[in-house]
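From the shared-data thread, chain only:
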Amino acid sequence: MKKVSLRELVADKIIFAVLIAVYYWTWARNDWKGYYTTIQIVVATFTFYYFISRGIRLKKYKQETPDEMAEANLRRCDAICLKISVAVLIAVSFLCAAGRFALTTEVIGYCLVGMLVLLAVVRTIIFCVMDKKGL
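Structure, as tokens:
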């Protein structure tokens, strides 16, 4: 049985963020094409199997001996990402205040969803670097 690493679980959050972005796209678009239904069905099916797979891997990880150094690195990485997210949210809020007539709620939503995807990628990169160097 293959061990499940914390690095794998952290990188898995990128897929979760992309799924949220795709769901937002399916709800926020203004037009309708015939193939959008197919995209929604494929994404829903993938999401179902993704959560089943993630649950199985998370259960395996909880049964293993925890890597305390990796978990400490993850906490430090989360603290860094919290500071990044605060900075991005402040930037988005000032952008919304400055362009309140030009920016729609759809654009603001895309900014927020983009921030989620960006944070998932940045969190994974920072964690992998910290974990590899043993900081």
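The CA atoms of residues 92 and 120 lie 18 Å apart.
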